[in-house]
Design a protein that fits this description.
Elements lengths: L3 E3 L6 E4 L5 H18 L4 H17 L1 H12 L3 H25 L3 E2 L9 E8 L2 E5 L7 H13 L2 E5 L5 H13 L7 E3 L7 H6 L5 E5 L2 H14 L2 E5 L4 E5 L5 H13 L9 E7 H17 L18 H16 L3 E4 L14 E4 L16 E7 L2 H9 L6 E5 L3 H10 L4 E4 L18 E2 L4 H6 L2 E8 L6
Parallel strand pairs: 5-6, 5-8, 6-7, 8-9, 10-11, 10-15, 11-14, 13-14, 15-16
Antiparallel strand pairs: 1-2, 3-4, 4-18, 9-17, 12-13
Helix pairs in contact: 2-4, 2-5, 3-4, 4-5, 9-10
The site of NADP nicotinamide-adenine-dinucleotide phosphate has 31 residues, from helix 8.
Length: 462
């Protein structure tokens, strides 16, 4: 895949980039290793000041950064602005909390016969981050901010269709004051990830992306006995039960499905509705999905821009055609619009059966499937009948049902009467083929730390 900015709204190639040579990659790795030796000794106070400055810069330049992201991957300018501001928030969150999250944890010294005993979090070294294009700044930032605050150094291999955002990230941290080499971008294709990951100077890897990419990277990391964190795909259920506020559920469900032009790992994808309210919910949901405005992502009236690449659109066209040819019905959408750009309309499919690919595969576009069930147990069973386990949404005002859903749904995140969202203050991640490990909060920053047990005996003579 060429490393290039291709505007999804027009299909035009805006700018192409040359992949790094072996010598350039070597230079980056050598610099990461040498920077780590001194960077790990910087104080939390110093790192925090640099991280706050990072937040200042992105807040000051929000419009330029947002426009770059919209040009590279097609999200609406409004959504891109929100993403940039969310990144600033994450920077400030880790600037404020990293030291507390990584404080020494006292252990029972007497029980282990020590004068003092504790556990200390220490940085690991250069960590490779393989990142996707869908939230080009946020995905990379939610790795970078905690990693840098912990004293690690970062190596970013971003998706090949967002090279400008990738290069901007390196420049951003340098401008904010971080030492050269603390955060570097590698302009390389996915075929060159293996060599970087096998390099002795790279100590760990995090990958956000598809299952096949995660599986490949995790295998190599396993072979090298290096720590890995995986944030992979999802097919989040959105359960609606009779006591729910149906209008609100339909409105939030529409937002949850169409978020980021439908290309979000935590988008609600499978709508599982109790038959007692299914007709009404479907009516409200289809009405809202059909009313979303598809168009130029720079236009402030647009709700949904184009899909990020021609391949993304080909994939969803095939998935929807497969469902329809096997008996599904499109209550809205389902056809490719005329004209340039990789647009796809909000689509609601009903009559889904296990014979259809969309029943088991992730729909990475604004395409919802709707199922009907007759009980809470059936809803939980269907929600869990997937290889994915990222997030889950459920709508009910009944406290007992809420408790059963919270404990019964096989997912890394459960949101009741709301849609799954990432916050610095909540752990983020999945189970099953959605990955392992967590990002954000104290759990996220500790993923790439050495938890060192320290045992200190009594001074001699005492
Ligand atoms: P992708 O093809 O897996 O690409 C993601 C990154 O991995 C890119 O940098 C890509 O580089 C690289 N890559 C691809 N194949 C690789 C391989 N064999 N070895 C090493 N690196 C490889 O994913 P995508 O289709 O762009 O992104 C969408 C997927 O990401 C969806 O499944 C979505 O649900 C998931 N996602 C998950 C989360 C989460 O937090 N759980 C968040 C966002 C997205 P190139 O671009 O150079 O190919």
């Amino acid at each position: 895949m060429a490393i290039a900015t291709i505007n999804p709204a027009t299909g035009e190639t805006v700018k192409t980039f040359t992949e790094f040579t072996d010598d350039q990659v070597e230079h980056v790795l050598a610099r990461a290793a040498s920077t780590f030796r001194t960077y790990r000794r910087t104080s939390f106070e110093q790192r925090s000041a640099w991280m706050q400055r990072t937040a200042d810069i992105i807040e000051d330049e929000v419009d330029q950064i947002a426009e770059m992201m919209t040009t590279e991957m097609g999200k609406t300018f409004a959504a891109a602005r929100l993403e940039v501001l969310k990144c600033a928030k994450a920077c400030r969150y880790f600037a404020d909390h990293a030291e507390g999250f990584l404080e020494d944890e006292p252990c029972d010294a007497e029980a282990v016969g020590a004068a003092s005993a504790y556990a200390r979090y220490q940085p690991l070294g250069p960590v490779l981050a393989v990142m996707p294009w869908n939230f080009p700044l946020w995905q990379a930032m939610r790795f970078a901010a905690p990693a840098l605050m912990a004293g690690n150094v970062g190596l970013l291999k971003h998706a090949s269709n967002v090279p400008q955002t990738a290069l901007f990230m390196e420049e951003l941290f340098t401008r904010a004051g971080f030492p050269e080499g603390a955060f570097q971008t590698l302009l390389i294709g996915s075929a060159n990830v293996e060599a970087v990951l096998r390099d002795d100077r790279v100590v760990a890897v995090t990958l956000t992306g598809s299952g096949p990419a995660g599986s490949s990277v995790a295998s190599i990391a396993g072979d090298e006995v290096k720590k890995s964190v995986l944030e992979l795909g999802g097919s989040d259920p959105f359960i609606v039960l009779p006591s729910a506020d149906l209008a609100k559920a339909a409105e939030v469900g529409t937002t949850a499905r169409c978020l980021n032009n439908g290309q979000s790992c935590i988008a609600a994808k499978r709508f599982i509705v109790h038959s007692a309210v299914a007709d009404e919910f479907e009516r409200l949901f289809v009405e809202r999905m059909a009313s979303r405005v598809v168009g130029d992502p720079m236009d402030e009236d647009t709700d949904i821009g184009p899909l990020a690449s021609e391949q993304q659109r080909t994939d969803i066209v095939e998935l929807v055609e497969d469902a329809i040819s096997n008996g599904a019905v499109a209550r809205c959408g389902g056809t490719v619009p005329e004209g340039r750009g990789w647009y796809y309309p909000p689509t609601v499919l009903v009559g889904i059966t296990p014979a259809m690919r969309i029943h088991t595969e992730e729909a990475f576009a604004p395409v919802a499937t709707v199922y009907r069930v007759d009980s809470l147990d059936e809803a939980i069973e269907l929600a869990n009948a997937t290889a994915f386990g990222l997030g889950a949404n459920a709508w009910t005002d009944d406290r007992d049902e809420q408790a059963l859903l919270i404990s019964g749904l096989d997912a890394g995140m459960v949101f009741i009467n709301g849609n799954v969202t990432s916050y610095p203050e909540l752990p983020f991640g999945g189970i099953k083929t959605s990955g392992y490990g967590r990002e954000l909060t104290a759990h996220g920053i500790r993923e790439f730390c050495n938890l060192k047990a320290v045992w200190v005996g009594a001074p001699s003579g005492s």
